[in-house]
Specification:
The protein is mostly beta strands. Strands 1, 3, 4, 6, 9, 12, 13 and 15 form an eight-stranded antiparallel sheet that branches. The relative contact order is 0.28. It has no helices and 15 strands. It binds magnesium ion (MG).
Amino acid sequence: DAIILFDGKNMEEWESTKPSSTNEKWTLVDGTMLVNKKVGDLQTKRKFTDFQLHIEYRIPANITGSGQSRGNSGIFLAALPWGAGGYELQVLDNYNNSTYVNGQAGSIYKQNPPMANACFPPGEWQRYEVVWVAPRFKEDGTVQSSARVTVFHNGVLVQNNFVLTGDTPYDGQPFYKKHGPSPIKLQAHGDKSEPISYRNIWLREL
Ligand code: MG
């Protein structure tokens, strides 16, 4: 059965990754979650291992900025409280915006570029379909099997069972550190461009 993570009515499945007494979240606007960069990243209260994920996002039509500072967000398929913070599927406006290849929308950040640029123009809703197979670890903490991901961006295959070499840091080498079931995290990137929105987020555990 599908688990509905966001259907436009409330953000009860989500929490801020920052400890906060106010339990602040993003902004619910017209059935969408609008990123609030002051609140920071948002993650699911539930934890997952392997899953199929459907998620939609919209870069605002009035987006400004360039490179990584234009509609940057991201979907961490397993959020981790160390290193890069998990494994990031990049969200960015690359409709008419160039950046380094493995930082484009649809990339596994800094590890693998998308097989195609499937971006729609800013202002349009776009979607990812993701199949995530989490890494498995041995008792001693070493990797038993690496994470694998398949991604369709707006219906176009952009990651084909890609094997991750670890987490997805901006700087330095990816690495694996033992973990179990983890939340899914949405990035509030610190750049100055207008915040993006998410909607229709559901998942099927595998
Ligand atoms: Mg990002």
